Amino acid sequence: MTLPQVLIIDDEADIRALLELTLGRMNIETRSAGDVASAFALLEEYRFDLCLTDMRLPDGDGLDIVRHIEEHHRGLPVAVITAHGSMETAIAALKGGAFDFVCKPLNINELRALVRSALNLSKQAPSDGSNAATKLLGDSQTMKSVRALIERLARGQAPVYITGESGTGKELAARLIHDLGPRAGRPFVAVNCGAIPEQLMESEFFGHKKGSFTGAFSDKDGLFKTATGGTLFLDEVGDLPVPMQVKLLRAIQEKAVRPVGSQQEVAVDVRILSATHKNLHDLVRTGAFRQDLYYRLNVIELVIPPLRERAEDIPALAAHLATKLSTGRPLPLTVQALATLKKYAFPGNVRELENIMERALTLCEGDEIDVADLRLPGQVGARLTEETADEHTPFEAANYTGEQSLDEHLAQVERAAIEKALRDTHQNKTAAARELGITFRALRYKLEKLGIE
């Protein structure tokens, strides 16, 4: 069996010797170079599975190596060795395409973990994009570009900051980055930063020791420890309070956490992916988000476009959702229904489209889903909206402000209209359904869904 081949580039003979010895004990063959020119010559002569390079070299620097490999040896993972505390240099290397970095003085366990992860990546067959295409649907040029970037990001370890409106699929993109990379066999841990009470955040992220506070009846691993070897996805990272941002930054930079009540730090090996629908740059400007953490998380940005900017993808998405949500034979959509969906703005994006399709499949009484079955705000179920408007409620579809989720807003619109119709008909459900312009079955479904007695 052919042994893995690693290229070591460092101008210090003792560092080269240490790396050769460490990798040799891992049953890995190595070749070494002391400068950029010698490294380029070896890259042309031999095939390698990994390149380890120092940042400071006599005739250049590690960034020259990273750029050369990115241009001439695409697919070869390259990790850089930086001086302790040179985070800006490490981030520059990651932005340039480096797989990962390790700091001097070298931590042998950290180095071994990096090498194993990189070699796992080298063993993976180049992806044709089919995995991403089956999960992040759409044939628009925009989505093709997003999938291509995801494929590239999956091959590195750089932190990725995913931006996009609510419902665009940010967590799905994060899972794809994990699933297509060398950490695929390890945990993917997702956490909504806005859903954790502030007083419990440190314990949730870093863990705690038994007896460290009231209610700590046993030791607990935090999210970092749970995700070790895998990926930690920080959703809605913009909701983190500033004191927690300081602790999170230190954990990311030191690759270690200290459980609440412990005097010892615990090494962790996680890839950080983060997302938010907020504008972090604005939060940095106002002081609500630390600039140093922002730059540490936003090494590479992945923008997920809103659905309204890729309307050509809606037919394929609607058909996929119809198949996914149907209990029997999926119902097709009429040409008019598809045209209506393509004109709709989708403030709730793909999540809203799924909600619309689920409702249409439940309420449709024909063999295909037509415009009336979609019940889009301001157009479908117009009588519902008109009845609500007559009551002068603050939940009119036309006045949607985005202060609540679209699903919550629509539920309030429907609830107000249904309750008025039931009052007007003295709780006669058949008459109420007729007044609302919907079938009795549809009314019964809505009563159950909204919990109206």
Can you walk through the features of this model?
The chain has helices at about 15-25, 35-45, 60-70, 85-95, 110-125, 130-135, 140-155, 170-180, 200-205, 225, 240-255, 280-285, 290-295, 315-325, 335-345, 350-365, 370-375, 380-390, 405-425, 430-435, 440-450; strands at about 5-10, 30-35, 50-55, 55, 60, 80-85, 100-105, 160-165, 190, 230-235, 255, 265, 270-275, 300-305. By secondary structure, the protein is an alpha/beta fold. A five-stranded parallel sheet has the order 2-1-3-6-7, with helices on both faces. Helix 1 links the parallel strand 1 and strand 2. The relative contact order is 0.07.
Beta-strand residue percentage: 5-15%
Shape: elongated
Percent helix, as a range, is 40-55%
Mean pLDDT across every amino acid position: 86
Structural class of the helices, strands and pairings? alpha/beta
Kindly identify the CATH topology of the largest domain. Answer: Rossmann fold
How many beta-strand runs? 14
Structural topology:
Layout: E1 5-9, H1 13-25, E2 29-33, H2 36-45, E3 50-54, E4 56-57, E5 60-61, H3 62-72, E6 78-83, H4 87-96, E7 100-104, H5 108-123, H6 130-135, H7 141-154, E8 160-163, H8 170-179, E9 188-192, H9 201-206, H10 223-226, E10 231-235, H11 242-254, E11 256-257, E12 266-267, E13 271-276, H12 280-286, H13 291-297, E14 300-303, H14 314-325, H15 335-343, H16 349-363, H17 371-374, H18 382-390, H19 406-424, H20 429-436, H21 440-450
Parallel strand pairs: 1-2, 1-3, 3-6, 6-7, 8-13, 8-14, 9-10, 10-13
Antiparallel strand pairs: 4-5, 11-12
Helix pairs in contact: 7-8, 14-16, 18-19, 19-20, 19-21, 20-21
